[in-house]
UniProtKB/TrEMBL annotation:
Lineage of origin: Eukaryota, Fungi, Dikarya, Basidiomycota, Agaricomycotina
Domain of life of the native organism: Eukaryota
Protein name as annotated: Fungal-type protein kinase domain-containing protein
Residue span(s) of domain Fungal-type protein kinase: 9-106
InterPro entries: Kinase-like_dom_sf (IPR011009), Pkinase_fungal (IPR040976)
Amino acid sequence: MIDARNKDDRIHRDISLDNIILVREPGNPIRRGYLIDWEVSCKVDADGRACDVAERQVLFHCGQCANHLTCLQGTWRYMSYNVLDKEDVVHSLSDDMESLLYVVLYCSLRWLPHDEDEKSLGAHLHALFDYSEFLVGRLLGGNGKYLFLSTRRYLEHITFAHPPIKEWLDTVAEYRCVRDSFNVSAIPQKVVHPKHLDAFWAEFLASHTLEAKDRIERVLPASSSLSYSNSSVRSTSSVVSSDTQDIQKVPANVMVP
């Protein structure tokens, strides 16, 4: 992310679980992460905001009319709060950094050992990452992320078997939005440039011993409603979740050119 910003003034715009690979390099005990799938990336201006705005649109058909919805670049589950909540938002580097937080948060809740039962966890994951609704001709989401950023809901009550991951999540969430601050749309300086997160992450890995082979396979209840789940909104076919449990079809009244 830093290399793309410094060397090519570019942001990714689709940071997701499917677009990150971990590589074990010779002589390095810690695997290095790489971002892949840069097809929706774009150049940014001096403020880190995307220079181009997608012209593609999602069409929502209601009866005899067709309302146009602004196309969102990225993967619904990991999109930033501002991208999900604001109409005609211009994607920025800070949105990519927030998406990275959600990738780690999702993986931690979904697969690391902690004390929340599967039924509650399934409901909370859906509310935080997958919930969406059509309202006034727009596809909306982000309510769960607003609650997470402002109050740390869905995380504060959970006790992980290995405390360092909670420390990481709390710290990076605080970078994005100070707890009990309800101005969630404001972007703090610490997420304007990835150097702050990079410095913290390097120090964290150097000072903490993380558990290995502690993944837990959980069977979560199926969601009772359709959502965009882990699909890229630019996708044209079915919605396939990263944990390969469910394959959900995009609702018949939604078309993505």
